Amino acid sequence: MVAAVASGDSGLDSWGDFLKKEYRRPIFFCALIAIAPIAYGYDGTYFTSLLETPVFVRQFGDIIDGEPAISSSDQSLWVSIIQVGEVVGSLAAGPIGDYSGRKGGLLSAIILLAIGVVLQMIIVGSGALLTVGRLIAGAGIGIISNAAPLYLSEIPPVEIRGACVSSWQLMLAIGQVIGACVGLGAHTLESTASWRIPVGINLVWVVLLFGVLFIVPESPRWLLYRGKEAKAERALKKIHAGSDYQDSLVQEQLAILNKSREEEAESSSSVSRWSDLWKNPVERRKFIATVGILVSQQISGVQFIFSYTTTFFTLVGLKDTFIITIIVDCIEVIGVIASFFVVNRFGRRPLLLYTGVFMLFTLLVVGALGAVAGQGERFEPYLADHPSFGKAVAAMICLYVFAFNVAWGPLAWVVAAEMSTGRNRQKHLSIGTALFWVSAWVVTFTLPYLFQPNEAGLGPMIGFVYSLGALASLLFVYFFIPETIGRTLEEINFMMEARIPTRKWKDFDLATVVAKDEKKGTRGTTEHVETATGAGAGVGPRPEKPRTRRFETSFLNNKKANEEIDAVAESP
């Protein structure tokens, strides 16, 4: 058993701890990779702005009732086709990532994104090229949605892993703000620049990410699983270059990763197989948790807000909808930032449940408001008589957005990255992100047919539809998602192998098992002896009274475990 044990609590004592030297390099590399989700967030809001941009509507729309307009079918196609590409990209990310690593996956993603962006811009009024371009760009974003969260979960130590993976949602939200601001600034231009500038800005993310690939190291976990131990050691040295204990950290983490890989091979197989995702009960549990949490994030209807904010607010009678869209996107950013302060206090699982209940409530209120207003011929007169109706709907949506981004936005990706551990890690997240995009596509494709007055005409009553998804998401988390805060990826993998029940993870302590293992002399850790002669002491031997230092990369992160292990190990 991998049994190195970290001293200290499961989280950081204060936000100032992020500035410690041992965390600076991992945070720097994660910050560079976190540019990737900006492309995903940017696409959603800039394109919804294009649907309300006069020049774009004239050049790409049809004449409906004597006025240029974009039909519901074209809205559905152009907004949702990118999700089709994202499904394809997510599925392709598995074999691409297994073969070429996290950096190889990101390189293929930015190539596809660049091609897709260029195709969208080259011919004015070509709906076909716009569709193909968004499909190809979507494939690039699909690969990003697989490779980036994996990288963000594999590089940092356990204390800062949650914050680093959560940065995915933060940068996604910032991308949405940028997209909304660009849409506001460009939509009044009386030339093709009104839509070509927003589309072309996607190339900025391409250039930035291409430069990032020359700076960041490859994932050491992927390198080790590919048998490239020398390269994995070099990558770890680059990651821990700022630490006073660089050599010790590198050797210990190599020992832990190698031992974890050996144990996994002994318990099942060292070969990564697609069939294991369903046939092997342990891998099946990981698969269900990874796929389920990502799909659950989508079925409560967040894509309705993400993809159609401006259009929906126009429908409910609000003015200055571009400004309101920016406000909603800023609330997303505030929500994600707030999550950094509450996740370590409440944990992953409780926060998902608490915010899920609140989101369910806001969706029911939106649906109830829509039911009062009615649909069809009743809706327009009701808006005219009740000018505050749209503001009430917008207020509920803002509350929903805040709650979503406090928990479900960032934590779904954190939990998915943590649940998809072991040799099939890339495959779990590949299928998970693919089904995430399938569920996103279903929402974005069907939405115009549900809320547009000339279709089903549900309007705000779609809140009732998505409240069912929110309820299903709550039930899934309660029965299938364990609490993983403070656990290393190796510990999570072991607890999956040990088949610990979902609701027992929070209080489960492996100290006794680890202690017995150490007493037998089979403990798979690398111990590092350091001098204890003062604050300036360096790493080195002290034969007369050695002291073991356990690092944050170790298997268990528990003070009680350290005490029990030492007690058992020293007993006769």
From TrEMBL:
It comes from the Eukaryota. The chain crosses the membrane at residues 26-42, 77-94, 106-129, 135-153, 165-189, 195-216, 287-309, 321-344, 351-373, 393-417, 429-451, 463-481. It holds the Pfam family Sugar_tr. GO terms for cellular component: membrane. It catalyses: myo-inositol(out) + H(+)(out) = myo-inositol(in) + H(+)(in). It is found in: Membrane. Keywords: Membrane, Transmembrane, Transmembrane helix, Transport. SUPFAM superfamilies: MFS general substrate transporter (SSF103473). Residues 519-530 have a biased composition (Basic and acidic residues). Residues 519-550 are annotated as: Disordered. One of its GO terms (molecular function) is carbohydrate:proton symporter activity. Its main location: membrane. InterPro entries: MFS_dom, MFS_sugar_transport-like, MFS_Sugar_Transporters, MFS_trans_sf, Sugar/inositol_transpt, Sugar_transporter_CS. It is a multi-pass membrane protein. Residues 29-485 form the Major facilitator superfamily (MFS) profile domain. PANTHER family: MAJOR FACILITATOR SUPERFAMILY (MFS) PROFILE DOMAIN-CONTAINING PROTEIN (PTHR48022:SF77), PLASTIDIC GLUCOSE TRANSPORTER 4 (PTHR48022). NCBIfam families: SP (TIGR00879). Belongs to the major facilitator superfamily. Sugar transporter (TC 2.A.1.1) family. This is Major facilitator superfamily (MFS) profile domain-containing protein. It comes from Kwoniella europaea PYCC6329. The lineage of its organism: Eukaryota, Fungi, Dikarya, Basidiomycota, Agaricomycotina.
